[in-house]
Amino acid sequence: MKEYISTGKNVDIAIDEGLRFLGLNREDVDIKILETGGLFKKAKVCLIYNDIQEDIDQINNEKENSKEEIKEELIQTATEEKEDKIENVVEDNSQLQQENQSVENIDELKNRISTFLKNLASKFNLEVNVDCVIEDNNINFVVNGSNLGKLIGYHGETLNAIQNFLSCLKYSGEGKYRIHLDIGNYKKEREQNLIALANKMADKAEQIERNVHLDPMNAYERRIIHSTLQSRELVETESMGEGDKRHVVIKFKR
Questions:
Q1: Collapsing DSSP states into helix, strand and coil, what is residue 122?
Q2: CB 4 within 8 A of CB 154
Q3: Adjacent-strand bridge partners of 235
Q4: Calpha distance 250→222 (Å, rounded)
Q5: Strand 128-135 to strand 138-145: parallel, antiparallel, or no bridges (unpaired)?
Q6: For the chain, which domains are there?
Q7: What SS3 class is residue 83?
Q8: Tens digits of per-residue pLDDT, 12-61?
């Protein structure tokens, strides 16, 4: 069991903020109220949960892996129950399972991925809507519905694994498309939070004139930090560490 401390203006807000950060639903955690808060004091709660993602290997988004390797990473992101469900839906979908399969028609590709995502959600007894928007050479899929925490996973790890699996699909028509996936606007909200965090920590580095180390992040999140701060004059960023310890350091330019 793991614990996460969350704060907010009141108990309900503190709980909601903690659940949003963990990517979990209320039924997935036990809640212990530490402080109810008051006029000049924030509420504090402790969320107790099973960390089903602890042993996930960090997926390197900058390398091209085969579809079979990505499938293995996807399976490792879940409990034994989730492993069986995800593996079955991938194996049952013959259109997505063929190695290095190419798709000639963009509408066909959209339909295949939409069907795959709905089938995957059904394995968790979830009903979802899948929206798709094409912008330039990007195909953006957004999954909406209720109780999407199981598809998002701890800190978005399950979402990232599904994203990497879909990124292996080939499109051989005119142009080359990149596939992007968001579930319940988790990535959009996470990106906004990371941008705010990057600027806050950069301000801190400038104020104390020292380097600031951020918590470990995956490659996608580290790129957001780097991109946000690349135009800052007094700081620069660098990724340090290996595996699940890899993180961004905001360096003060002396």
A1: helix
A2: no
A3: 252
A4: 11
A5: antiparallel
A6: 2-49 (no CATH), 67-184 (3.30.300.20), 188-252 (3.30.1370.50)
A7: helix
A8: 888 988 888 887 888 878 888 888 887 778 889 998 876 544 433 443 44
